[in-house]
Design brief:
The protein is an alpha+beta fold. Helix content is about 20%, strand content about 40%. It has helices at about 5-10, 30-45, 85-95, 120-130, and strands at about 50-55, 65-70, 70-75, 75-85, 95-105, 110-120, 145-155, 165-170, 175-180. This is Pyridoxamine 5'-phosphate oxidase. One of its GO terms (molecular function) is pyridoxamine phosphate oxidase activity.
């Protein structure tokens, strides 16, 4: 084992006290659970609880990720924004499949979503642009809000013994089904 590996093993991982994840009381709609976890992260004072890794696909199918912030969640999906001239916007035009990974280290929780992204209307995009702290009051025709409509969502609550508790949701025909995900530790 290298010195780096030995040092990395000594770093703190999860908080000492973490919430229980009751798989018997999962809501039918995963967005309800996501919003509950997000609200708990906000209430805890977690820094940027709306930040996530947003993954798109390169032309050769390789994934590429970057950190974005969630702008909204509604019937269209999970909103993010960018310039329509950005690399991620180009990647979404070429392949609209994307994924988001939220991680709240303060609670040991993670949510992964994947699905298809669509560009939302100009009115939504301009409202978002004008609400930015750096907006000068002028519209920005390059600004675009996108919504990821998830097809799969996985919720994970960490445990100190690394036997993390996971629940998965899958949307088929417009309806969600869910259940525990059992995988060995590691």
């Amino acid at each position: 084992m290298s010195d780096l590996a030995a040092r990395l093993r000594t770093l703190p991982a999860f908080p000492e006290e973490m919430a229980e994840f009751d798989l018997d009381s999962l809501p039918d709609d995963p967005n309800q659970l996501f919003l509950a976890w997000l609200e708990e992260a906000i209430a805890s004072g977690a820094r940027q609880p709306h930040a996530m890794t947003f993954q798109t696909l390169l032309a050769d199918g390789s994934p590429v990720g970057r950190t974005l912030i969630l702008k909204d969640l509604d019937e269209a999906g999970y909103h993010v924004s960018t310039r329509n001239t950005s690399r991620k916007a180009q990647q979404l035009r070429e392949d609209p499949r994307a994924a988001m990974t939220f991680f709240w280290r303060e609670s040991g929780r993670q949510v992964q979503l994947n699905g298809t992204v669509t560009a939302l209307g100009e009115d939504i995009s301009q409202r978002d642009w004008l609400a930015r702290p750096t907006a000068d009051g002028q519209p920005n025709p390059e600004w675009q809000v996108y919504a990821l409509q998830p097809e799969r969502i996985e919720f994970m609550q960490a445990r100190a013994d690394r036997n993390h508790v996971r629940a998965g949701y899958v949307r088929t025909g417009g309806r969600w089904s869910h259940g525990a995900i059992t995988t060995p530790a590691g």
